[in-house]
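Researcher: We're teaching a course module on how sequence relates to structure. For the next exercise, students receive a sequence and then see the predicted structure as tokens, so they can try to spot secondary structure elements on their own. Here is the exercise chain.
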Amino acid sequence: MMVGPSERLLESEPTNSWVPHKTGARILVVEDDKAIARAIQRKLQRHKFAVQVVSAMPDACRVLDGFRPDLVLLDLDLADSSGGDLLSDLRSRGSVPIVAISAARGEGDAVAAFELGADDYLVKPLGLDELLARIRVALRHVARPESGAAPVLRVGDLQVDIEQRRVSRAGQPIHLTPKEYQLLKLFATQTDRFLPDRLLMDEVWGPSWRGGQHILHVYVARLRKKVEDDPASPRFLLTESGLGYRFVTAKSSAPR
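Model: And here is the predicted structure for the students to work with:
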């Protein structure tokens, strides 16, 4: 099922009430097109998610603390043009996964959303089955692994505790978005191995992701700013011949 701005699927307006389910994650939907909001709300509730719908930035900010969403689905094309501001504000508040949706199809628009902190980006008109799949993937990425499933990686003063989902450098915690953490986790569990761009994108964004490689490069640059002493001359996260990356466990005298 495709949902686009011109469709009118509403029988009644989406409400700000939500019905929790003991096995369902909480999804905050920020969407001012009533037809799209209602279609998304119905789809997610049929799959046992607890859904709250709001249509503007002030409402989203008001309900965040009380609702405590596990994921935010955010329309960047809000009528008051606040979508980008809200995305930036949400990311500054914490690491909740954010799936951005927009009618803008250009790679530059997607890159801008990722740079503001989005974890995924979908273009309208939306396929509700694909949207559901992307939401499930985003939620799996922030789920804790089973106890004892992964070690603690220490490289120099950088420490990655995969089980506890904690990253620190020189004893100071490092805040990562869900996508940043997932990418670092992949590097940390495949140390000293060459990882091609395509493999990294398939693992982090999924094989159905149609965005360009520039998105990956944006995220690697962001990771370097957080885990490297000198992002311009990295000693851990090295570029390999412009085709991929390698996370090295020994200090390199000639960063690439």
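Model: If you want an answer key for the exercise: Residues 5-22, 144-149, 251-256 have pLDDT under 50 and may be disordered. Helices lie at 34-46, 57-67, 83-93, 107-116, 128-142, 178-188, 197-205, 213-227.
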